[in-house]
């Protein structure tokens, strides 16, 4: 049998290879057993992004849940991951099963289980689910009678209502801002554009139709895939372009001049903006691999800083405890106080538009103002593929505490997640080995723009040294 393991964002696999109906039934049976022993409520939301066969997978999951005495509430249309998370909390269900592979290529799909607080399941929960799957064995893979009718739930209205409470949409309208929205053929179709247009904001869209192949590439709102968004911005004279990935938990933002503003900077800018406009100073959270511009802002504003391992579930816990105003990861995940403990690419884009509207200047200008006050930060991330021999050697190497890297003195070693080395000038490098591929993720952040490439090179050279 295929071993089903849940990572930071659930179990993902290639459709028709490991992601089969038989394995889906096994995974859902394991989740159903977990929910059943938790007591009431024995209801679970079942949703999906627009990927191939999503409707079939949702129906199969609903049948398995019902067979195990758990009531499925089926979301009939593709829905953003954060909208599902909000519905879990509003409806007080025993969690949700979301069929999504997020920003992964179209041949992938996945199952993400979120707990009753709407947050991604923590390792202690997924560990129990995996144990259930193993104990159930092959019997759980057997087909069940299909065709049963289940209660349908529309998660869109209440989620959009909540966004309107958290984002100053009237300010965007009053500014006359024009927006371009790129949902990447994904689950946020009809969400960002709908709420902006409802409030009178002129909004154009690209890739606003279902394509289960996502244009032939991963539905990832990154710079190299945003050409059509940028073209539509030029055509409509838009001040900002916002994009979401396949399940709308990640975001991408394009400035008025067509410059992609990397997520590290959006997180820092929005943190500064929320302190300024909402007066929220309870805290800020970032993963260890996210820009230290957030650290500098926390010091500047006198706000507690929480630096977490990579994985949004850790930030979600801090949101649930109301310890932070905003939490973010450099991989384009973000949420804010009073919202879901889950990444939300929709609210990130809307808040970025609000920030441009209220401050009356571009994102690039706002970033330069921060640099003028706090100094410059130039983050970078690369994946470095390793041979088996090099990986074995490097796995041992990162257990040591180096005194220098590339001839630069290491002043602090951080092991929150992987190995992070802070250098004497405040620049840093961070290494995280992939658990599934022969890859080391190499993060670096220079304090001068002309040092970005040399620092990145030094970080990679240390891997091979």
Unreliable runs = none
Distance from first to last alpha carbon: 40 Å
At the fold tier of CATH, the topology name of the largest domain is: Alpha-D-Glucose-1,6-Bisphosphate, Chain A, domain 3
Tell me the domain tally. 3
Topology diagram in text:
Elements: E1 11-14, H1 21-37, E2 43-48, H2 54-67, E3 71-74, H3 81-91, E4 96-99, E5 108-114, H4 123-136, E6 151-152, H5 156-166, H6 169-175, E7 178-182, H7 192-198, E8 202-205, H8 227-236, E9 240-244, E10 251-254, E11 260-261, H9 263-278, E12 284-287, H10 293-301, E13 305-308, H11 312-320, E14 326-329, E15 333-336, H12 345-359, H13 363-374, E16 378-385, H14 388-397, E17 404-405, E18 408-414, E19 419-423, E20 428-433, E21 439-446, H15 452-464
Parallel strand pairs: 2-3, 2-4, 3-6, 7-8, 7-9, 12-13, 12-14
Antiparallel strand pairs: 1-5, 4-5, 9-10, 10-11, 14-15, 16-21, 17-18, 18-19, 19-20, 20-21
Structure notes:
- It is a single chain.
- This protein has 465 residues and is an alpha/beta fold.
- It folds into three domains: 11-154, Alpha-D-Glucose-1,6-Bisphosphate, subunit A, domain 3 (Alpha-D-Glucose-1,6-Bisphosphate, Chain A, domain 3); 158-374, 3-Layer(aba) Sandwich (Alpha-D-Glucose-1,6-Bisphosphate, Chain A, domain 3), CATH 3.40.120; 378-464, Alpha-D-phosphohexomutase, C-terminal domain (TATA-Binding Protein).
- It is 38% helix and 21% strand.
- It has helices at residues 21-37, 54-67, 81-91, 123-136, 156-166, 169-175, 192-198, 227-236, 263-278, 293-301, 312-320, 345-359, 363-374, 388-397, 452-464; strands at residues 11-14, 43-48, 71-74, 96-99, 108-114, 151-152, 178-182, 202-205, 240-244, 251-254, 260-261, 284-287, 305-308, 326-329, 333-336, 378-385, 404-405, 408-414, 419-423, 428-433, 439-446.
- The radius of gyration is 22 Å and the shape is globular.
- The two termini are 40 Å apart.
């Amino acid at each position: 049998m295929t071993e089903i393991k849940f990572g930071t964002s659930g179990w993902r696999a290639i459709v028709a290879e490991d992601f089969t109906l038989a394995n889906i039934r096994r995974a859902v049976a394991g989740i159903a057993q977990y929910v059943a022993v938790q007591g009431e409520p024995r209801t679970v939301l079942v949703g999906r992004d627009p990927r191939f066969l999503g409707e079939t997978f949702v129906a199969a999951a609903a049948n398995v849940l019902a067979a195990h005495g758990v009531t499925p509430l089926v979301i009939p249309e593709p829905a953003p991951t954060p909208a599902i998370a909000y519905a879990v909390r509003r409806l007080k269900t025993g969690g949700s099963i979301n069929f999504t592979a997020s920003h992964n290529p179209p041949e992938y799909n996945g199952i993400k289980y979120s707990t009753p607080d709407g947050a991604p399941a923590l390792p202690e929960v997924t560990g129990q689910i995996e144990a259930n799957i193993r104990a159930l064995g092959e019997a759980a893979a057997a087909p069940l009678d299909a065709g049963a009718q289940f209660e349908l739930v529309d998660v869109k209205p209440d989620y959009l209502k909540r966004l309107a409470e958290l984002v100053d949409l009237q300010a965007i309208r009053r500014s006359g801002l024009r927006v371009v929205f790129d949902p990447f053929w994904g689950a946020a179709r009809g969400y960002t554009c709908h709420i902006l247009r409802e409030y009178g904001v002129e909004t154009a869209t690209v890739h606003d139709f279902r394509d289960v192949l996502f244009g032939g590439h991963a539905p990832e709102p990154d710079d190299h895939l945003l050409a059509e968004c940028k073209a539509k911005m030029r055509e409509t004279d838009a001040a900002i372009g916002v994009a979401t990935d396949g399940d709308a938990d990640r975001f991408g933002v394009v400035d008025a001049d067509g410059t992609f503003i990397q997520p590290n900077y959006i997180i820092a800018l929005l943190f500064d903006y929320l302190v300024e406009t909402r007066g929220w100073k309870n805290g800020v959270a970032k993963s260890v691999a996210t820009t230290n511009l957030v650290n500098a802002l926390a010091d500047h504003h006198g706000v507690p800083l929480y630096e977490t391992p990579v994985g949004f579930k850790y930030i979600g816990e801090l949101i649930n405890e109301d310890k932070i105003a905003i939490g973010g990861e450099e991989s384009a995940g973000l949420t804010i106080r009073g919202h879901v403990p889950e990444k939300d690419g929709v609210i990130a884009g809307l808040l970025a538009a609000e920030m441009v509207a209220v401050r009356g200047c571009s994102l690039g200008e706002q970033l330069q103002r921060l640099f003028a006050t706090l100094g410059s930060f130039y983050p970078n991330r690369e994946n470095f593929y390793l041979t088996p021999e090099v990986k074995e050697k490097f796995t041992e190497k990162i257990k040591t505490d180096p005194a220098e890297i590339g001839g630069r003195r290491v002043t602090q070693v951080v092991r929150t997640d992987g190995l992070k080395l802070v250098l004497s000038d405040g620049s840093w490098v961070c290494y995280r080995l992939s658990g599934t591929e022969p890859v080391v993720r190499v993060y670096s952040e220079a304090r001068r723009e002309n040092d970005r490439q040399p620092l990145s090179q030094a970080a990679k050279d240390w891997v091979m040294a």
